[in-house]
Write a structure and sequence with these properties.
Helix content: 40-55%
CATH architecture: 3-Layer(aba) Sandwich
Shape: elongated
Number of helices: 2
Structural class: alpha+beta
Strand order of the largest sheet: 1-2-3
Number of strands: 3
CATH class: Alpha Beta
Order of helices and strands: EHEEH
Radius of gyration: 16 Å
Length: 70
């Protein structure tokens, strides 16, 4: 995984996004030395989102989610 400062992301967004699209390696964005966000390519994000929704639907079907989690 790559790590970049938020200021580096601001200055080099186009380059960082091109690298992300090319190699699909997530990028950890730090701010003041602490993790602030992860940057992932669109396909990876959509895949993770679909997996989460499938997992959530399965748990709802099994009655394992409490009402406030839905």
């Amino acid at each position: 995984m790559k790590t970049h400062l938020v200021t580096t992301l601001k200055r080099n967004a186009t380059k960082i996004l091109a690298e992300l699209e090319k190699d699909r390696t997530p990028v950890l964005i730090t701010e003041y030395g602490k993790p602030a966000a992860y940057l992932v390519d669109v396909e990876t994000f959509e895949s993770l989102e679909n997996r989460f929704e499938s997992w959530r639907a399965l748990r709802v079907a099994k009655g394992q989610f409490r009402k406030e989690e839905q």
